[in-house]
Specification:
The complex is a heterodimer. By secondary structure, chain A is an all-beta fold. Chain A has no helices and eleven strands. The chains are: A mainly beta, B mainly beta.
């Protein structure tokens, strides 16, 4: 299994531009999570999906952030417009289900730099 | 609010020293507990997990952790660290209330060769 696949690995963009991060979860996993990691705030859960449906987006920082999961094998996290404070590493993770007795598997992350 | 506390932000050890990283959580009820490791520039990888049964769990690379329910703790241990253990270690908890995995702030371990 290829694991959780994220793209791009690195993204540098100018303030005000739209940024789209992509994630392909492990085949057969029906829960997907987006996390953001910064030095100041550590690892924050932004949103998670179960069976392609957003369950909890309380961690999404502002309306500039949106996430979709159109099918079981693809999710996007979009920032529009981007700001320098959005610079972080964004991780996607997936698990077999939302409940107990499952663990999350992480992708390699996308390092986003907004200048 | 639900939280996970890791006692040390930075730890520096010499090779062959013993390691113990503290982790406490604030949930009641049934929990799943995890330790993840993040090597420099890499993603998070699962070191070990506790779901049920024996509270002493063994993971990869010689790590182990002990779940003490009465203390709401899940401390990570390794009897003899190596330079290659230099990484950041995250404690994480999942409980029955919403199924989110909540991570602690992380502990950066530096092992001197």
């Amino acid at each position: 299994d290829a694991g959780v696949i994220q793209s791009p690995r690195h993204e540098v963009t100018e303030m005000g531009q739209e940024v789209t991060l992509r994630c392909k979860p492990i085949s057969g996993h029906n829960s997907l999570f987006w996390y953001r990691q910064t030095m100041m705030r550590g690892l924050e859960l932004l949103i998670y999906f179960n069976n392609n449906v957003p369950i909890d987006d309380s961690g999404m920082p502002e309306d500039r952030f949106s996430a979709k999961m159109p099918n079981a094998s693809f999710s996007t996290l979009k920032i529009q417009p981007s700001e320098p404070r959005d610079s972080a590493v964004y991780f996607c993770a997936s698990s077999l289900g939302p409940g107990l007795y499952t663990e999350a598997f992480f992708g390699q992350g996308t390092r986003l730099t907004v200048v | 609010a639900q939280s996970v506390s890791q006692h040390n932000h930075h730890v520096i050890l010499s090779e062959a020293a013993s390691l113990e990283l503290g982790c406490n959580y604030s949930y009641g009820g049934t929990v799943n507990l995890f330790w993840y490791v993040q090597y420099p520039g890499q993603h998070l990888q699962l070191l070990l997990k506790y779901f049920s049964g024996d509270p002493l769990v063994k993971g990869i690379k010689g790590f182990e952790a002990e779940f003490i329910k009465s203390k709401f703790s899940f401390n990570l241990r390794k009897p003899s660290v190596q330079w290659s253990d230099t990484a950041e270690y995250f404690c994480a908890v999942k409980n029955t209330g919403g199924f989110k995995t909540i991570f602690g702030a992380g502990t950066r371990l530096f092992v001197k060769a």
